[in-house]
Design goal:
alpha/beta; 8-stranded parallel β-sheet; 3-stranded antiparallel β-sheet; zinc-finger
Length: 546
């Protein structure tokens, strides 16, 4: 993100009619916006939508059926894709123009649909958004009273906007392309990005803006451009949508179909916090396709490392369900693409503040993929509630799931770097991966409204530097969470600086907090039975603590 945010030119508000429907065992009913005919797509409940209630702001997610889902349907084209050309998404400029035309003349009755039947609208109360005099910070989405000019959470100026994305957008045409069919680029770092991923957004009008929003990518892109990293120091990977055959290696057919169905709906929800619109299926397939191709390019030696600047994120998406803002599991798709290209062993390090329950589930019985997660846990009370230290994998995969569950918020650089030096790096060296994939959520960053931790851009830079040696520099960084625009853009930029060779070198002696040390001792005690190399570290730390 550029150092300055500019005033917003205006606010986009969907002008569609909202209609609520109960979820039956067989079908969800709705009205076609164009022809007014009844439509009965396959039931979201049957195909995996609304299987799990819970959000990043909840405590532990509970597996319950959703009593009501909110759907509004558009007519699909002959190929079943909403606004599609040859089965792919329309160019983003055309879609943006069409969306702006649809907004013209929006009135209050277009935004709020009411009927005489009693409905469950506990997660959507338009009246509260209309009555209260408040504004939402563009940087962190936290609400503020109207009289306050600076956000009480992050001190961002009221009315700020993302500045610098247009510069990045114009530079896309200047970037060198790298693929299996092109000549080797002069640079060793590749970036995966496509503007169509910006079309994935929450369309339903709610009192609070959704934290997983398109501006996350715009802010990072603007920051990379302002830092002089893009396009001069990295190549661009041509985008493609992941194929169904590739997704079937990770997800069930029902899950894939449930995501694909969303292109026939104006908007829909898999869980209370996991939205989709008519472009989300395309965005999710683009994100997964970019991650797969980046992994293949790295393993084949065409580039040394890469950064997947993608959304929607993926590490909560499990074998058969979307949740936690995630539709397809991008890191899992990348890991399997790396193995198809020749990698025998893959290390996934997940530093998102939330446990990557989906990634762990996918690989918990696979000893060729080592999954290490550092996350806020609070004894199962922090979303999604999984990732306790005793979760070590199953069957042949025992010992290949390593969870470092922080017991409280506020965890910062010292705790993370100490965990890297005492747990992550020794196990990684013993495992000797052919490629390292980072599930790089930046919601443990200082100022994040959901993570409430204290990792700095320097801390992320150090962790990236430490991981470069694990697999001969073959490193793929995949964007996951992170909801403070300034934090996510500055942190991502410092990480990419390491990839392109501009990162600062640090040799920091770190002392963890008391709570951090207790967590690390717990992990060492459990994991030393699978990784004996940890035994001496556990004994010395235990003696020191005693």
């Amino acid at each position: 993100m550029a150092s300055d945010m500019q005033p917003l030119s205006g606010h986009e508000i969907p002008s569609r009619v909202v209609e609520n429907c109960g979820v039956s065992d067989h079908a969800c009913h709705g009205k076609c916006q164009s022809c007014d005919s009844d439509v009965k797509p396959s039931c979201a409940e049957v195909n995996g939508i609304s299987l799990l209630i819970g959000s990043h702001t909840d405590g532990k997610a509970s597996k319950e059926k959703c009593g009501a889902c909110t759907f509004t349907y558009d007519c699909a084209g002959p190929d079943g894709c909403l606004i599609a050309t040859n089965g792919s998404c329309m160019a983003v400029d055309e879609l943006t123009q069409q969306f702006e035309r649809e907004q013209a003349g929006a009135a209050l009755e277009d935004l709020v649909f009411s009927n005489d039947e009693e409905e469950d609208d506990s997660d959507w109360d338009p009246a509260s958004g209309l009555v209260m005099n408040r504004w939402f910070c563009l940087n962190c989405t936290v609400p503020n009273v109207d009289e306050v000019m600076y956000c009480l959470n992050c001190h961002e100026l009221k009315g700020s906007g993302v500045d610098g994305y247009d510069a990045f957008k114009t530079q896309i045409a200047e970037a060198a392309l790298v693929s299996p069919d092109t000549e080797l680029p002069e640079v060793s770092t590749a970036i995966g990005f496509d503007e169509r991923m910006l079309l994935h957004s929450e369309l339903e009008v709610k009192p609070n803006p959704h934290p997983e929003r398109p501006d996350r990518l715009r802010a990072i892109a603007a920051s990379l451009s302002a830092a002089g990293i893009f396009p001069s120091k990295c190549a661009l990977v041509p985008p493609r949508e992941i194929t169904k055959e590739e997704l079937l290696m990770v997800h069930t057919p029902d899950h894939i179909e449930s995501v694909e169905q969303t292109k026939n709906m104006l908007y829909s929800y898999f869980t209370s916090d996991t939205y989709a619109n008519g472009h989300s299926a395309c965005a999710a397939k683009l994100a997964a396709g970019l991650c797969a191709d980046l992994a293949s390019l790295i393993v084949s030696g065409r580039v040394q490392n890469g950064f997947a600047m993608v959304r929607p994120p993926g590490h909560h998406a499990g074998v058969k369900q979307a949740m936690g803002f995630c539709l397809h599991n991008n890191a899992a798709v990348a890991a399997l693409a790396a193995k198809r290209t020749g990698a025998k062993k893959v290390l996934i390090v997940d530093w998102d503040v939330h446990h990557g329950n989906g990634t762990q589930e996918i690989f918990e019985g696979d000893k060729s993929v080592l999954y290490v997660s550092l996350h806020r846990h609070e004894y199962g009370n922090f979303y999604p509630g999984t990732g306790a230290a005793h979760e070590v994998g199953i069957h042949d995969g025992q010992g290949f799931s390593v969870n470092i569950p922080w017991s409280c918020g506020g965890v910062g650089d010292n705790d993370y770097i100490f965990a890297f030096k005492t747990v992550v790096l020794p196990i990684a060296a013993e495992f000797a991966p052919d490629i390292t994939i980072i599930s790089a959520g930046f919601d443990a960053a200082r100022g994040d409204p959901l993570g409430c931790c204290d990792v700095t851009p320097t801390g992320y830079s150090i962790m990236t530097s430490l991981l470069t040696a694990c697999s001969g520099g073959r490193l793929l960084v995949i964007l996951e969470g992170g909801y403070n625009l300034r934090s996510i853009s500055s942190s991502a930029t410092e990480v990419v600086k390491v990839l392109v060779g501009d990162g600062s070198s640090f040799d920091v002696a770190t002392a963890p907090s008391k709570e951090g040390l207790e967590t690390i001792l717990q992990v060492l005690k459990i994991q030393q039975q699978f990784w004996p190399i940890l035994g001496s570290t556990y004994a010395s730390l235990q003696a020191h603590e005693g």
